[in-house]
């Protein structure tokens, strides 16, 4: 067996012998590190893997999510994919719903606090979160916990005792707090408690490894420190990159409109994936695909040899659509995409009934939910992005007469509109 020397933490600095890794541990390490930003502390994690292999006791791997919104997009699945990979390696994954911390509100790098949620909002969002997360995780092998289980029991005395384990100076090392403090932007006391409460979750769960986005690194490190204070073995942390959205610049976000929702229709998901750039495609392969690194390298070689990147992108789009729907829907989505690319009309488009003929084109597009406003609709007409029965509309003053017609806005929005007086 090959030996592998890794940088050690202070806790294992005295262990000078090189690590000798079994094939199983080496494979687990490669899978764990794929597509990640940072693994801390790697040598500690390798020893945890070795111990797990020898004892047969799986590691306890934690992912905490505050249910601040009811819908997940592909950006959220980056960390969920990693959880599933670790789950498939035989470890126990804990899907921690931050019902208590949601009521505190985490700024998460923003310059204003995230508004706390009501208990009703949390419960509703949590149901939706786990149902959607189960499209990635194996629900039967996932432990679901709520941090109110232990946080509510702390009470005022316990909260003060917990707060005594960390200094204000260390809390203010968190980047967003530092910026706000220097800028004179108010920081509420309850915000300072958030990293402590998230860190205490790791103590309560005796976590071996905690996952999170790069924007959560500080909070994950607090968990390590608190475990040490409570006499526990410290967890390792694994940070995942933030996936860029369809624009290839900003991180994927519903508020920025550059997202792909995991419950969107298959045709929509497919078309959105096909719209990403050829360069960004490889980033999506790395963070979202379950293809092996060898397969992805082969795809890159094929493109370098002259194959159209569009063909490889189709493979990615079909994989993602099949994961969240099924293979048949993925096949149908490809047919639909090709049909649209040829200027054809999809088979399955919304049926809309409107009254008020003759109706102005701006109002028609708005009422048919093809544009958010009549002003947006008129801009689309001006840009040549509106078709009725295949004919480009250029007259912003057009009054549409009664009848049934197929209306198209842009490349992906269609409706069969029946307009009456």
3D architecture notes:
- By secondary structure, the chain is α/β, with parallel strands linked by helices.
- It has three domains: 3-240, Rossmann fold, CATH 3.40.50.620; 266-341, Tyrosyl-Transfer RNA Synthetase (Orthogonal Bundle), CATH 1.10.240.10; 351-420, Structural Genomics Hypothetical 15.5 Kd Protein In mrcA-pckA Intergenic Region, Chain A, CATH 3.10.290.10.
- It is built from 17 helices and 15 strands.
- It has helices at residues 23-33, 42-55, 74-88, 99-102, 119-133, 148-163, 168-171, 175-183, 189-205, 217-229, 266-274, 278-288, 293-304, 309-324, 327-341, 361-367, 374-382, and strands at 3-4, 19-20, 38-40, 60-65, 92-97, 142-146, 209-213, 236-240, 351-355, 359-360, 386-388, 391-392, 399-400, 403-409, 413-420.
- The chain has a six-stranded mixed β-sheet, with helices on both faces. The chain has a five-stranded mixed β-sheet with strand order 9-15-14-11-12.
- α1 crosses α2 and α16 packs across α17.
- It starts with a strand and ends with a strand.
- Mean pLDDT is 85; it is low at 1-6, 10-17 and 108-113.
- Pfam families: S4, tRNA-synt_1b.
- It is found in: Cytoplasm.
Question: How would you sum up this structure in a few lines?
Answer:
By secondary structure, this protein is of the alpha/beta class. It folds into 3 domains: 3-240, Rossmann fold; 266-341, Tyrosyl-Transfer RNA Synthetase (Orthogonal Bundle), CATH 1.10.240.10; 351-420, RNA-binding S4 domain (Structural Genomics Hypothetical 15.5 Kd Protein In mrcA-pckA Intergenic Region, Chain A, Roll), CATH 3.10.290.10.
């Amino acid at each position: 067996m090959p030996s592998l020397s890794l940088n050690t933490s202070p806790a294992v600095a005295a262990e000078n012998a090189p690590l000798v890794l079994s094939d199983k541990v080496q494979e687990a390490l490669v899978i764990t590190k794929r597509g990640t930003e940072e693994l801390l502390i790697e040598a500690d994690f390798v020893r945890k893997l070795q111990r797990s292999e020898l004892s047969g006791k799986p590691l306890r791997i934690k992912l905490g999510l505050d249910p601040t919104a009811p819908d997940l997009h592909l950006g959220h699945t980056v960390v969920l994919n990693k959880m599933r990979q670790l789950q498939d390696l035989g470890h126990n994954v804990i899907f921690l719903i931050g019902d208590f911390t949601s009521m505190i509100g985490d700024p998460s790098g923003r310059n204003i606090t995230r508004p706390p949620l009501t208990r009703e909002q949390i419960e509703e969002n949590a149901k939706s979160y786990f149902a959607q997360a189960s499209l990635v995780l194996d629900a039967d092998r996932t432990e679901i916990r709520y941090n109110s289980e232990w946080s509510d029991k702390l009470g005022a005395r316990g909260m003060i005792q917990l707060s005594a384990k960390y200094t204000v100076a260390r809390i203010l090392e968190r980047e967003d707090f530092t910026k706000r403090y220097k800028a004179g932007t108010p920081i509420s006391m309850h915000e300072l408690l958030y990293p402590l409460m998230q860190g205490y979750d790791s103590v309560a769960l005796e976590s071996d490894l905690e996952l999170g986005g790069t924007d959560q690194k500080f909070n994950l490190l607090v968990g390590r420190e608190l475990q040490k204070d409570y006499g526990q073995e410290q967890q390792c942390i694994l940070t995942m990159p933030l996936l860029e959205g369809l624009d290839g610049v900003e991180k994927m976000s519903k508020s920025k409109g550059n997202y792909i929702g995991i419950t969107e229709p298959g045709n929509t998901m497919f078309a959105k994936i096909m719209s990403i750039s050829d360069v960004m495609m490889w980033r999506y392969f790395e963070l979202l695909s379950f293809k092996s690194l060898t397969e992805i390298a082969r795809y890159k070689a094929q493109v370098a040899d002259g194959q159209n990147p569009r063909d490889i992108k189709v493979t990615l789009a079909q994989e993602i659509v099949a994961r969240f729907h099924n293979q048949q829907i993925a096949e149908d989505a490809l047919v639909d995409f090709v049909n649209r690319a040829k200027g054809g009309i999809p088979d399955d488009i919304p049926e809309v009934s409107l009254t008020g003929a003759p109706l102005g084109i701006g109002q028609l597009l708005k009422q048919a939910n093809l544009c958010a406003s009549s002003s947006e609709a008129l801009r689309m007409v001006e840009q040549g992005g509106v078709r009725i029965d295949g004919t480009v509309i250029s007259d912003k003053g057009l009054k549409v007469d009664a009848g049934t017609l197929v209306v198209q806005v842009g490349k992906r929005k269609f409706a069969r509109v029946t307009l009456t007086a």
